[in-house]
Amino acid sequence: MNQPPNPTDILHGDRLRVEFLQTRHKLSSSSNNNKAPTSSPQDMEESIKLATLPALHGKAYDEASYVVTVGYGTPKKNQTVVFDTGSDVSWVQCKPCVSTCFLQREPLFNPSESSSYRNVSCGSLECAYLTRSSCSSNTCLYGVVYMDKSTTKGFLARETLTLTPSDVVKDFVFGCGQDNRGLFGTIAGILGLGRGKHSLVSQTVKKFGGIFSYCLPPPSASSRTGHLTLGAVTKATKNISYTPLNLDHETLYYLDLVGISVGGRVLPINASVFLNAGTIIDSGTVITRLPSSAYAALRSAFKRGMSAYQSTPSDSSLLDTCYDFSKLDTITVPTIVFHFNGGADMKVDFSGTMYVTSGSRFCLAFAGNIDDTDLGIIGNVQQQNLEVVYDTQVGEDLGCP
């Protein structure tokens, strides 16, 4: 069994993921053929379903992201997967694993033992929608390459996906991985929640209405379980504010961030800074990235608010504003609030403001991009303890209690 990732490993992997997402952002305007479908009310099932899965931090699986357990096949075999808003194709490792498979905690999924498994043909639309595909004996082959050089390749297939005992998705299109290499910890694969046609959200739009939400517990809260929910939350019973999704791009979840407050004061950041490259919200990125000038303003205001505390040198190449809290019983940090188009505010709590890099060293859990044209990303550290709601049909997102 691998050792759990330390903060240095996590931040290194996070840097590579950010580079991957920023590359996708730059390429997103060149093609529009993978845009997720929209459904009219008459296309929806008569009653939109609701499926809730327990969500855990992936540290037990040597992962820095969040995981759920789903069932593949008939009879179902449980597989623990990272749920990822930055990915479209869902996949799990499969026997016979003709090339390479990494070590996972659960037994590999064996399609030969499932009565509902079948491969997707090369001439299908599902195969045509893939960014990377090839063909072998009229069987569609998929491939995904991540920025950290991790890869998965195998058969594109249809299978029965069990979310809960009462929520079963038949003919779910996924990747049956036969060659899987890289930094995946000991998970079984990925559950794609992106906006592309292969994602779980798009494939179940008639059943769940293109709506999903999650609550992410901090890694330190080992006794707490979060959730991933597919289907609509009841807006009347939750204190949730919404901001429109920016649908100008065909992939990823773009938001219109319009300002940031620190300690109750709005930072003097020109609104054009946030418009230059845009901002996405992502469940798989750990640390929030901001345009360089926006981060500089946030860091400066935060340091002023922390003048009573002893700063300490950083042991991270990513995080540059750190403090030693070893002799303190009570710690108060300036409140950071993101302001979004439509009036939605996202208040970041302590666990989303300070990131433990080693021992008693806590660092400001934000980082600046190289310049103001690089994509901004709201990471999962800042989303902890919030109910985050995505409504892909209405174009609204970021429900915060």
UniProtKB/TrEMBL annotation:
Q: Which Pfam families match?
A: TAXi_C, TAXi_N
Which positions fall inside the Peptidase A1 domain?
66-401
Q: Name one GO biological process term.
A: proteolysis
- Identify the catalytic residues: D84, D282
Check the record and name the InterPro entries matching this protein: Aspartic_peptidase_A1, Aspartic_peptidase_AS, CND41-like, PEPTIDASE_A1, Peptidase_aspartic_dom_sf, TAXi_C, TAXi_N
Which keywords belong to this entry?
Answer: Aspartyl protease, Disulfide bond, Hydrolase, Protease, Signal
Query: Is Heme set as a keyword in this record?
Result: no
Bias class Polar residues marks the residues at 28-42
Signal as UniProt keyword: yes
Per its UniProt entry, which superkingdom is the organism in?
Eukaryota
Question: Which Gene Ontology molecular function entries are recorded, alphabetically?
Answer: aspartic-type endopeptidase activity
Stretches for region Disordered: 24-45
Say which family it is in.
Belongs to the peptidase A1 family.
The record's annotation in PANTHER family points to:
ASPARTYL PROTEASE AED1 (PTHR13683:SF750), ASPARTYL PROTEASES (PTHR13683)
The name on file for this protein is Protein ASPARTIC PROTEASE IN GUARD CELL 1
